[in-house]
Amino acid sequence: MELSKKSKILFGSELGFVRKAEFRKNDHILKTHVYSIRLGKLFDQIVNKSNNEKRNLIRRIFKVNRFNDLKHAIAGIYDVSLPDIGARAIYECICSQKAFTICILKENDDIICDDDVDDDIDCYSEDDCLGSIEENMNENQSFFRDLFSDVSGEEGEDEEDNDTDTDTKGLKSFLARNKIKRAHITKNLIACATLERVSTFQLPGQDEWVIDLQLLAVRNKYRGFSIGKYLINLIQNHDLVGNYDAIVTCSDNNAIKFYEKYAFSSDPILNSKYSHVGDIWTDATKMCYIPPYFSSNGLDLSIQFKPIISEIENEVKLDEILESDTQLGIQDIMSNETEDESSKFIAELTNMERDYKRWQKLMFSSYQFQSKLFFKFKQEILTLKANLCAKNSLIEDLKIKNDILTKNNRLLKLKIDDLETKKEFSNLKKNDECSNIQISDYELSIND
Q: Which SUPFAM superfamilies does this chain map to (predicted)?
């Protein structure tokens, strides 16, 4: 049965083998295997369906006695490297149903796991795992402070735990009795990156696929091997994660320069588009990476992702899957180079044309929307102008009427004043006549 196209990328498989990788620092060569795992989904399948095949497969690949050893080790790397996030938030990220974690493990064929050890699948309960974290949230030191022994030399890696008690379960018991070191996962796990693939629909025609890079950490002991650069190149690789429009991360303020070296931008206007994607950590800055059309993944080998579970279901042995990642010969590369480059060039031109059509459509829709707004505002302005003119006309009419009433009022006042004056004059005249009569009577009386 041939695998589907979706299953050939990281987000299409719950457990996958990415490739082998070598890292160099001075004269030290570090050989590793790179895997991807969907912890939350696999954990639910193991717990709810008691899937022993997948459980044993994880034990063989990651050289652990218990499935939860891997989960706690990944959480430990993040908590030690990114102490401001907090253990609870880290567990919520890596155990999310949609989250995928890329793990880089050192090659170590000498480790043998006990197949007859029961998996402590009940450890991820509030009473044990998250309850233990809450008990330590008020402590200043990291909850996983003793999980890794990142010493400068190799002596610290050869120490073995003499504790023989195998009945301890859960995160608290692992850390208290150092059982997770006994599973050897802390010796082999050197770096991790957790990411999700989400879709955004800001406006019609603006739907995008975004890679949410939630967490990325490299153990202090292995820094300087360019492992962080390798993880970024993996995540930017379309052959591994499929097509995407942007990669969004919330970077620690001390890591901004690291991300800027790989074309991540902290521009606030550009990142405002992705403000709803991912979480915002304390003392962190939102950054995003916009991929070019014509890009190279920056890796020495092309990615041929292998979904392990699907391959094994097709009766392919695990050893064959892990050993099939070999260096291509020069003739093979030259024979396939022209065809691959041609197909990629056509695909990238198609993407350019698609984005141009989308831009054209968006610009036309934007013009229509702006025109609609313009005519709405125009009608609103005309209506307000008409109302203003009507009110001005009414005010002028009222002014004219007021002037007329004022004049009439003045005339009435003048008439009233005139009448009062006449009345007073008449009264004075009568008084004069009466006084004259009295004088004449007085004179007559004297003469008599």
A: Acyl-CoA N-acyltransferases (Nat)
Do 54 and 126 lie in a common domain?
yes
What is the Cα–Cα distance from 334 to 7, expressed in whole angstroms? 27
Q: Are 36 and 10 in contact (CB under 8 A)?
A: yes
Q: pLDDT tens digits, residue range 45-89?
A: 777 666 677 777 887 888 777 777 788 888 888 888 888 888 888
234 Cβ partners below 8 Å, 6+ apart? 18, 34, 102, 193, 240, 299, 303
d(CA 102, CA 34): 7
pTM of the model: 0.67
If residue 289 lies in a helix (H) or strand (E), which one and from where to where? strand 284-289
Buried b (16+ CB within 10 A) or exposed e, 173-191: bbbebebbbbbbbbbbbbb
**How does pLDDT run across 305-318, given as a tens digit for each residue?**
667 766 666 656 66
Q: Are residues 79 and 148 in the same domain?
A: yes
Over its C-alpha atoms, the chain yields an Rg (Å, rounded) of 43
CB 348 within 8 A of CB 293: yes
Q: What share of the chain is helix, strand, coil (3-state, %, to 5)?
A: 55, 15, 30
Q: Which domain holds residue 32?
A: 6-327
Write out the two tokens for 373. Answer: 């707004």
User: How many CB atoms are closer than 10 A to CB 88?
Assistant: 15
Q: How far apart are the first and last CA of the chain?
A: 165
